[in-house]
Specification:
Layout (H helix, E strand, L loop, with lengths): L1 H4 L10 H26 L10 H6 L4 H4 L1 H34 L5 H13 L2 H19 L6 H8 L1 H14 L2 H10 L4 H12 L1 H16 L3 H5 L5 H9 L3 H37 L1
């Protein structure tokens, strides 16, 4: 009846014009600050524009001139790797185990994983401060220990990425079929379940890397040096270089998001081909 009267039913997808308007507004909101940053990075203090700031970043002596930023970048990359390992070693097996053996705990696990997104970073740091005083005594105060806090921070994003893939695959039937053919649990996990969860695992890993590279509050309040705290420190003496490195970090995050979208697109294409 709604289609006959020309009234769009409640909950229907927006039309082409509405999608164009929404995407246009969102694109402008994101594009304006990026264009402003790009324009600022070419400014010359004497007036006009210059390539000097960009040339300085890519010069052979940049690692010495901007040592603080490269130190922060190295720390952030190390934190990203350790955080991804924590997610893949703790969260992924737990989700698979709950899916296969304890489906009634699925809601509980989801609730626990979503909680960190509702807690402000400053509140989380206040709670983590006494914990890290113990961690510092046991494991030292190396930068990699910050990955424990980041592992909690990225839980909601990693959980959603893996769960969306886990819900689309009937891992229970696949595992029971493999077990009926004589496969052990190790073979079931390594040769049956993980290949089918490849898209979710890669998406969770990419999102984790993007979140860790952009994190500032926890590192700053716990007196650790990562990419964002180093950028703030350098921006006080050379704001142009800080903006250029921010743009490069933003471009890297965009590439990761494009890879996630490409993976999802390839997955849908293969599913359509198999169905046909």
């Amino acid at each position: 009846m709604a289609a006959v009267s020309g009234v769009r039913p409640v909950g229907a997808a927006p039309g082409r014009v509405a999608r164009t308007v929404i995407l246009g507004v969102v694109g402008v909101v994101f594009a304006i600050p990026i264009i402003a940053m790009l324009e600022f990075s070419f400014r010359n203090l004497a007036g006009g524009y210059t390539l000097t700031h960009w040339a300085g970043v890519f010069s052979p002596t940049a690692t010495v001139t901007y040592a603080a930023i490269f130190t922060g970048l190295g720390n952030s990359l190390l934190l990203a790797v350790v955080t991804v390992v924590i997610i893949l070693v703790i969260l992924l097996p737990t989700m698979i185990l709950v899916q296969l053996q304890f489906p009634r705990l699925r809601r509980v696990l989801e609730f626990v994983c979503i909680i960190p997104i509702t807690v402000p970073a400053i509140v989380m740091v206040v709670g983590l401060a006494p914990v890290y005083s113990v961690v510092a005594r046991l494991a030292g105060s190396s930068i990699w220990t910050l990955a424990f806090a980041y592992g909690v921070t990225v839980l909601p994003y990693a959980y959603r990425a893996i769960q969306s893939n886990l819900s689309a695959v009937d891992v229970v039937t696949l595992s029971e079929a493999a077990r009926s053919l004589g496969a052990g649990w190790g073979s079931v996990l390594w040769r049956v379940i993980l290949p089918n969860l490849r898209r979710g695992i890669l998406a969770a890993s990419f999102i984790t890397v993007a979140v860790v590279l952009g994190e500032f509050t926890i590192a700053s309040l716990l007196n650790r040096v990562n990419l964002q705290t180093a950028l703030v420190q350098v921006s006080k003496s050379d704001p142009f270089v800080a903006v250029i490195f921010s743009l490069l970090a933003l471009a890297f995050a965009f590439v990761l998001l494009l890879l996630i979208g490409r993976l999802a697109s390839d997955r849908r294409t293969r599913s359509v081909k198999k169905a046909s």
